[in-house]
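dumping this here so i dont lose it
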């Protein structure tokens, strides 16, 4: 399973159009680069995306692809809302809460049914997607920008999955404790982000 994960990451990384990074600011390329960089430019997004991957690892089975896949798809819908200027209340609070709650779920070792986990990450994905969409540069192409932030997010989910597998390799007895500790640290970071909003 670990070999499959690392091969999957390698395939995804190979799909990134390297030439796009050489010509930032030119037409559609600017949209892709801005979109790709948006999820990795804020600690709140990074923590939430990696937490989704760790949660998927913790649940295992079909959750390995269903939980991150749900987040990316629903986030795209949230992005459309943001691009269209449709208001969604409490965006920053929702993003901070996503870090707190996803971290707490991981820390508690909750083995929720996959459908419940998909619903939870789906709700939070709306906030993250809306933030990405609302912050799209005026001169960027919406399709390329969306492709960029979806790929950036998917790679962060893969990083979370890889982190979960890496921690799991530490040992069958201690691995789950390290995963839960990572969840607790994520949740505390989310609380700090939430406190800063008020």
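and the seq i came up w/
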């Amino acid at each position: 399973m670990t070999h499959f994960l690392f091969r999957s990451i390698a395939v995804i990384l190979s799909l990134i159009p390297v030439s796009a990074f050489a010509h930032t600011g030119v037409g559609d390329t600017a949209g892709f680069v801005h979109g790709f960089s948006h999820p990795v430019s804020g600690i709140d997004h990074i923590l939430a995306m990696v937490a989704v991957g760790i949660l998927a690892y913790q649940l295992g089975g079909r959750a390995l692809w269903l939980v991150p896949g749900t987040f990316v798809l629903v986030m795209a819908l949230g992005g459309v809302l943001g691009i269209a200027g449709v208001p969604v209340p409490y965006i920053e609070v929702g993003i901070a809460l996503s870090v707190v709650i996803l971290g707490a779920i991981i820390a508690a070792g909750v083995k929720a049914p996959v459908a419940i986990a998909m619903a939870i990450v789906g709700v939070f994905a709306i906030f993250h997607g809306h933030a990405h969409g609302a912050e799209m540069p005026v001169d960027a192409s919406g399709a390329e920008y969306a492709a960029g932030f979806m790929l950036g997010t998917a790679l962060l989910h893969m990083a979370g999955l890889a982190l979960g597998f890496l921690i799991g390799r530490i040992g069958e007895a201690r691995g789950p404790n390290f995963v839960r500790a990572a969840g607790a640290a994520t949740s505390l970071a989310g609380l700090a982000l939430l406190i800063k909003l008020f």
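DSSP finds nine helices and no strands in the chain.
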